[in-house]
Amino acid sequence: MRTGSSGPAVKAAQAQLAGYGNRTAVDGAFGPATRNAAVAFQRSHGLTADGIIGPKTWNKLINGTKTSTPTTPAPTTPAPSNGRLTQRQALAQLAAAGIKAPVGRTSLAGIRARTIQGVIALKKASGGCTIVITGGTESGHSTRGNHSHANGYKLNLRTRDEGGCVTNWIKTPQRKGAPRGTDARWHGTLAGISAEYVYEIPRGGGVHWDITFICPLQPG
């Protein structure tokens, strides 16, 4: 992203820059103020100060810490609990974060706590993209592996219409990895939770994001 760029990815970057105290509007338009904020951030984090937000700058934005203020070691805190939630608990947490209830017959009964924390973190990191959940713990998904839908580690998100914002965000700052079979795959970290994003194209149709949320700090 650079001067002249626009769209949800720029808005997400502006939100991150603002979080570091840089003065820029979060309007999705990469103008002089956004470039100046990017340059200031890059200088304070040992990056090439060219005002272009590429992979290195983005990774620092979402994982870095302010370098201008002396820091003291943070107290050790346990990794977030990863117990299973009831449908009501999951919906309440999503609603509090501005995420609507899943569509269709999607169920969240037995979803992992970190899976809900991860999708909420995704909404924040993407600059407020609309999240449309189309798959959860209901039957019909593959049960292979420990981190399956049935075990509460996966959510499916819409890619079309309002889901296009999430699609653009995933493909911009996240790390592209080896495909899973014939489906493209990306990786990233959201609030300490490892996320694997697979652009799943089922044979019967219904393209969607198949996202697995795993925290490497605490198996579960």
Automatic annotation (TrEMBL):
Residues 6-61 form the Peptidoglycan binding-like domain. InterPro entries: Peptidoglycan-bd-like, PGBD-like_sf, PGBDSf. Residues 60-83 are annotated as: Disordered. This is Peptidoglycan-binding protein. It comes from Streptomyces sanglieri.
